[in-house]
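Q: My labmate handed me this sequence with no annotations at all. I'd like to see what the chain might look like in three dimensions before we decide whether it's worth expressing. Could you predict it?
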Amino acid sequence: MDIIKLLPDNIANQIAAGEVVQRPASVVKELLENSVDAGSTNIKLIIKNAGKSLIQVIDNGCGMSETDARMSFERHATSKIQKLDDLYQIHTLGFRGEALASIAAVAEVELKTKKANEETGTLIIADNSEIKLHEACATPDGTSIAVKNLFYNVPARKNFLKSNSIEIRHIIDEFIRVALANPELSFSFNNENEEIYHLRGGNLRQRIVGLFGKRHEESLVPVEETTDILTIKGFIGKPDSARKTRGEQFFFANNRFIKNAYLNHAVSGAYEDLLPDDAFPFYAIFMQLSPSKIDINVHPTKTEIKFDDEKMIYAILRSAIRKSLSQYHIAPSLNFDEEMSMRDMGTRESLKTSSPSRDFNYDQGGEFIKNRQKANQGEWDELYKILDTANSNPNQTLSNNDNDEDNEENADVLLDIEESQQKPVMQLHLKYIVTSIRSGLMIVHQQLAHERILYEKYIESLESGSNYSQRLLFPEVLQLHGVDYEIVKEILPEIHNLGFELEPFGKNAFMINGMPADIQAQGDQKILEKIIEDYKNTSGADKLEKREKLARAFAKNTAIKIGRPLAYDEMKSLIDELFACKLPYYSPNGNPVIITISSDELDKKFKKQ
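A: Here is what I predict for the chain of 609 residues:
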């Protein structure tokens, strides 16, 4: 008995949809690219319920005849290629003929289309790969496709979709890629009847500013290179505009967005010595080369392609970016690790610059500390004496602890702290706080220690909503691009609990009416932008994770930074608050905050037996 049978069309289409339609953003990508291929000059995207209820794309392109409209729902039906050789000369975004058939297999689809030279248009309604309605209708020139109830007949796929805020971010990403690749076209994007983007046709620089905000306007550096192999055009960002995420990095090959880690390494290499390891520059780079030199038929999403000579393209790309950076006289402009030299460290003069004061505010992200501890000038005089002696007599160690012989090998650091309260502390390289303890030496990373203190404070504030806010005398407008705007909407209740007072203020903007009183000096807009950027660095959508992510981002951006001199009282207070934390030994990101060096280890370093 024969057991191999041909699958029905609806099952075959659902299988194909598994690769083509992975989430609402996949549908958006396919429909927008079809509109571009149709020669449209104005494209409108409408979204409801993060694309789960409605995805609609309306364009003024060439439209379709009645026969073409019906044929577009068949698998492997396309106007882009006719023969095998056409695969190696593709100039359009789509060519596989799978999109509409795959979408109609997992959603309800309504298509309205009309060619400019025809009096009436065509209406087609498809559901689960079946044509439910096919008739003439009145409709404007162009095409309108509405995709409703996505994955209604595939419950397992629907259950695997993320929260609305995450899905809408993926949709915005796809919209940005298509809009960036076609700056001469007009685009608009409406989410839940709110206009997120309204982009007029123009040049690439205008499109970048329209998508990512005016902060990019002054930071763009043009890139242009022409060779026999390919032409490179586009923009890169200046080093001081680099961000903590890769979200604003775009490669386009023949106007098609692609992902390529190898070429990304070429760009990163061009910025060598200009950026720290955890910073990523903006770039929107367009490569034009013969279609015969690339293979885009690697994956149904068409974002992975193969180059004929990838090593050569790598070399040309890196050289072009280095040339642009050189032409615009861009050199390292950020000092990420400002340090005190060893020659100046440990002298009476250098320590006096951070001598104790009675009124101070070490806690940029915490409460104002006033008259918390009085300076003990006797301790400082003792410290100066020790350091001066150490400088003149190298055989004397920094620690002046007479009780080292009584040290217990496995003593707990927490027990040592009580003893260390009466001992001098000092700042090393404007980065570490050093003090002696019973068992040897304790070194505290000042920034990570403060991050731990603030993190636990902010977690408490987020849970209780008890943080105080100070009204701004002159409210400021925070202008964001689409993805960041959606993130702020998602975390707005938590931001309010931290002391921010924000309210929507027009398209992709918030009015800042109040800020936590303890971070006024840092700049209202900049601190919020940094918090949003760090929040995007981690994933997770449930409420507990959201609070934790926000507390981490807030602590990281409001903590004392490396390079800041600390007064004696500031260092003592920082250590006091650190050991009042629940987990003082590690930063919120899991990095060690404290290290100890035992007397035995020091003796071994000095070859002392």
